[in-house]
Amino acid sequence: MKSAVSVILSALIILITTSAHAIRIKDLASFEGIRDNQLMGYGLVVGLNSTGDSDQTKFQIQSVVNMLERMGITTSANTIKTKNVAAVMVTVTLPPFAKQGNRVDALVSSLGDAKSIAGGTLIMAPLKGADNQIYAVAQGSILTNSFAFGGQGATAQKNHPTAGRIPNGALVERELPNTLTGKSVLNLNLHDADFTTASRIVAVVNDKFKSPVAVSKDPGSVTLTIPEAYANRAVEFVAALERLEVIPDAQAKVVLNERTGTIVMGENVRISTVAVTHGSLSLVIKETPQVSQPAPLSKTGETKVVPQTELKVEEETRRLMVLQEGASIGDVVRALNLLGVTPRDLISIIQAVKSAGALQAELSII
86 is in which domain, residue-wise? Predict the structure, then answer.
């Protein structure tokens, strides 16, 4: 008989225990306005070994012409025939409070029909935000951790050669406005909206500062009024607040993935009294044709095919398990362990228990 631990491993059951330990507020919520910002830009990658865009990519050729003209070199698109250049899109995630001169990673992705941008160098590409303002400039050597070589008869490729990264390749040129300057009220947005968690955050914060500085109007946010003792010191107030620990609450939920056989059960999952049995009926029918023919040199008789059928029926025997009302996740696992079920069987059993109205949790199938 398998142990409960072995069943958990074989069925890929992950037990989520959220109520046993306190979590910092900074891990449960984030302040409104303090977030990442997306930047994007267009650029050219040069120095490729005949793996760049072909002549069919017209905008890449036009970009090369425009770049050369800005450098004082007059040329025509009809005279340019190069495979060492590729047109790319450059994307960057600008973190909050990034200062001028800071560097962030840049992601470079091919736009045209380039075979590979490995080993190439990105020429200075301005990066704009949603307001069409330039906030950073990217340039540098591209790392793809890949290769792509081949001829007419065979090819060899590793990973994805048409996308790469430039570590610290984007230089911040414009700072975002400081969202904490001059504010007396801050909004704290919970990552997972919950009435109980929001009320606990309010209680912990008010107890810490010995005044009603926190109030919650909905389960997804908490409004904070900066105390007079922290006037013009919003950073110190936030630092003192985000270290506070709260025991979050979570809805009882079971998540099933039928494609992979993964089952995730929350610690708060409970079931009502229910009887569970699981068995399978196996029916095997095998047809074996038998050939009957006259003996050698026989003057009479004819050859016939006589079908022979083998029928085998097997029904697996399993015990009927009774799960008492209020059983916890550990009780469920131990009971299913006695049934010797597989991950697929577990999914079928849980769905059946939910249909019977005995599973006191939300069932999510992904």
Answer: 37-172
Residue type, 99: K
HSE at residue 208, side-chain half, CA atoms within 13 A, is: 22
This prediction's pTM: 0.67
Tell which phi-psi region holds residue 72, choosing left (phi > 0), alpha (psi between -120 and 50) or beta.
left
Which single residue is written with the structure tokens 């904070």?
224
Q: Residues 102, 169: contact at Cβ < 8 Å? A: no
Residues 6+ apart with CB under 8 A from 239: none
pLDDT-based confidence at residue 13 (cuts at 50, 70, 90):
very low
Task: For residues 188 and 178, give the distance between their C-alpha atoms in angstroms, rounded to a whole number.
Answer: 16
3-state secondary structure of 57: coil
Beta bridge partners of 185: 225
Do 157 and 116 fall into the same domain?
A: yes
Shared domain for 29 and 41, answered yes or no, is no
Backbone angles phi, psi at 251, to 5 degrees: -75, 140
Residues 162 and 234 in one domain: no
User: For the chain, how many structural domains are there in total?
Assistant: 3
d(CA 264, CA 346): 11
Spell out the alpha helix ranges (H) of 184-310: 195-209, 234-242
Q: Does 155 fall in a domain?
A: yes
pLDDT at 285 over 60: no
Grouping H, G, I as helix, E, B as strand and the rest as coil, residue 220 is: coil
- 154 within a domain of the structure (yes/no): yes
Kindly state whether residues 269 and 323 are assigned to the same domain.
yes
Give the residues across from 143 on adjacent strands. Answer: 165
Closest CA to 94 of 32, 39, 174, 31: 39
